[in-house]
Amino acid sequence: MAHVTRRGVLAGIGLSIPAMTMMTACGGGKKPGGAGSSSELSAWILTGAKEKVFQDSFDRWNEKNPDDKFTTQSFANDAYKEKIRTAVGAGNAPTLILTWGGGTMKDYAANGDIIDLTGKVDGIAGRTIESIMQVAAVDGKQYGVPNNDTQPVFLYYNKDLFEQNKVTPPTTWTELMAAVETFKGAGIIPIALAGSSVWPELMWIEYLADRIGGEGVFQKIEANEKDAWSDPAITSSLEKIVELVDAGAFGDGFGSVTADSGADCALVHTGKAAMLLQGSWNYGTFKQDAPDFVSGGKLGYLTFPTVDGGTGDPANIVGNPNNYWSVSAKADEAVQTKAIEYLNDYNLDDTMVADLVAAGVIPSNTGVEDELAASDDADYLTSAYTMVQNAPHFQLSWDQALESSQSQQLLDSLSQVFLGQLDPAGFVTAMNATIK
Fold first, then answer.
1. Reduced to 3 states, what is the DSSP secondary structure of residue 91?
2. Where are the beta strands (DSSP E) in 236-334?
3. DSSP 3-state assignment of 222?
4. Per-residue pLDDT tens digits for 313-371
5. Fold for the domain defined by 3-150+321-383
6. Where in the chain are all domains bearing CATH 3.40.190.10?
7. Cβ-based neighbours of 98, under 8 Å, separated by 6 or more
8. Which Pfam families does this one have (predicted)?
9. Integer Cα distance of 399 and 102 in angstroms
């Protein structure tokens, strides 16, 4: 299941995926041998604003289980994706394997890298949103459980820059292009983009394809229908991306901006860029790196603009329904049992929920309305919560929904389009070649 529908969806704002650099964090206990050890509990987590929430959860487990402690290591998003792929392939992954669901989890399940959790995780299942749990199901079996919050993508904007330049927050593509022209004329980067990281560029084609052609466009691609990338909505989306690039929407140096460092967010909160299309996890980054900017009400957020003549539902959203913990099949059975105990008793428990809300995100738990209303970020969280509630379709990020071989070609080809090295027709040809 690569998307979440309105039925059962109640949540949504995200894990701060971007962060600084690869680093390690001690979680107690012995260091595992190599990347992971079959006889010791271990987990890899992502650096950033939510890193401490994860670490505190493992620390609470370690305090109560001194003979069965988790060791942890922390990695920036891009470094993690490379590291975990290598570790799983070599058979020495950590006990708990973090994924975004989708094609990666399907690959792990098919290859016997993670265990079937069906009937073993009723504790965590009983307190989380059912439809989000279902994203981690493969062929009717549960291979993972949510471990943080749902993560839709927003169009963030600097309210001061909009007011100073008399620009109305754009709700249509025409208005967005007009805003680009105004900000460029004022010497301001219209839209920050972490082109060096590449994956942030996906958000543009994902939303454009949905707004122009609807959710069925990608569903055909995901189903490996012949020549599915030839859908006119894909070509139109790419043409609009070229239109943005040619208009100078992203400035001249977007190819050197990184997401892991929070550089795209910094351009917005320092007033160098007016807008940013990024995931809800970036709210945590804004809050961590520029607390006065956030508390002062200077950060705005919108759903993606509509496109004239488009047939997609303007309430649809893209992003990541959640991140998930899976349990390594290479771990000893006793270690697997302890890991499952952690998932049922500590993962997304009341303490972790409170920590996530304090960090400015909505956990994937049911019944969190009161906690959100009492938060310092109540206006943002309630607004985002309502947006996700009202979304008829929540599309998982394409690079996670597709198999790894397809997703890498997608990232490579899309980057070439943004850099002017590949035209829309070349992109379509390259991607149709990945369909099995």
1. coil
2. 273-279, 299-302, 317-320, 324-327
3. helix
4. 999 999 988 899 999 999 999 999 999 999 999 999 999 999 999 888 888 888 888 99
5. D-Maltodextrin-Binding Protein; domain 2 (3.40.190)
6. 3-150+321-383, 151-318+403-432
7. 43, 44, 45, 46, 80, 84, 147, 323, 324, 325
8. SBP_bac_1
9. 9
